[in-house]
Known about the structure:
About 85% of the residues lie in helices and about 5% in strands.
Amino acid sequence: VYANxxxxxxxxxxxxxxxxxxxxxxxxxxxxxxxSLCSIxxxxxxxxxxxxxxxxxxxxxxxxxxxxxxxAGYGLGGSSIAMFGRV
Length: 87
């Protein structure tokens, strides 16, 4: 939220300095949000793999083919929601 205000204030400056400072501010804020989103999603995916492994383990043996199919289905669902959620 603060990055939006900082970008707006930077953009109000005259000339090329305003463009440069506002772009740099927005670019840094977007980078931080992107890294945060990716790291949170990787942690969730790791936890989901652990949960699926516990569910799919039968008598000490894990069905890894089914485990990876579940993870691929989870990824396909996330991609579909991301693609069609904007419509």
